[in-house]
Specification:
Elements: H1 6-9, H2 15-28, H3 47-58, H4 71-85, H5 100-111, E1 117-122, H6 127-134, E2 138-143, H7 154-160, E3 165-169
Helix pairs in contact: 5-6
Length: 180
Amino acid sequence: MEYLSDRIKSLSVSQTLAMSQKSRDLKEKGVDVINLSLGEPDFFTPDDIKEAAKKAIDDNYSFYPPVPGYNDLRQAISEKFRVENGIYYSCDQIIVSAGGKHSLINVVLSIVNPGDEVILLAPYWVSYWDHVILAEGKPVVIRTGIENDFKASAEEIEAAITPRTRLIIFEQSHRYGVHP
């Protein structure tokens, strides 16, 4: 007997995974497809990164890490940001996780109660909606488009905020090819 919680059954099928599977199916049939569904690179892991991963295993980085990630890794990330991006984040401002989706669902589940509202600025990543539904919250969508450079006005955001609003999720416009 299969048992899934009502919470899980309330979620829709992952559109990202469905698109990715469709792409694989078409490729198997010989169709030339560019798969833009998953956030995967179109190249193999560089050899220096593979070697670093092998060295980490040899150096016994094989136990559960501290919750925010290994301090030396967080320090290296801090240094990368400083040198390559000209921005400074201290180690205590950096968290290493299994991925953005994992981190975001942790945030949503930590602060959204049943009936709470989460404002989503559309277009948005397809998983945001289900993150809110999983937390038993209510998604409130503000639609944006090319005519407004994919930006919501302060008035639109203010109008969407209610006493039940707990979170606003938005992405920087460069994800959609729009640059300030």
